[in-house]
């Protein structure tokens, strides 16, 4: 078996991941600043939701990045 070459999807995905999560974190923090004076329970709910929401787009990004590996080995898992 020959070593697999990294696909361009991986490089693009890593860049999207780095900049996307950075933008998401800055946005969540900016909104957190706006709700700073609100009740602690509402702040907790916001931060709990904001702390979980990023998972869904990142999961889709990882699945997209993994598609290139599946195509290169005929769709078989290793």
Please give a structural write-up.
With 78 residues, the protein is mainly alpha-helical. The chain has one domain (9-67). The chain has helices spanning 8-34, 40-53, 55-72. Helix 1 packs antiparallel against helix 3 (55-72). The protein starts with 7 loop residues before the first helix and ends in a 6-residue tail after the last helix. The mean pLDDT is 87.
End-to-end C-alpha gap: 12 Å
What is the rounded Rg?
18 Å
Query: Can you write the helix and strand succession as a string?
Result: HHH
How many helices in DSSP terms? Answer: 3
Total beta strand runs = 0
**Strand percentage:** under 5%
Coarse structural class: mainly alpha
Low confidence ranges: none
Helix share, percent: over 70%
Question: Can you tag this structure with a few keywords?
Answer:
78 residues, 76% helix, 3 helices, single chain, mainly alpha
Write the layout of secondary structure elements.
Elements: H1 8-34, H2 40-53, H3 55-72
Helix pairs in contact: 1-3
Question: Could you give a short description of this structure?
Answer:
This protein is an all-alpha fold and 78 residues long.
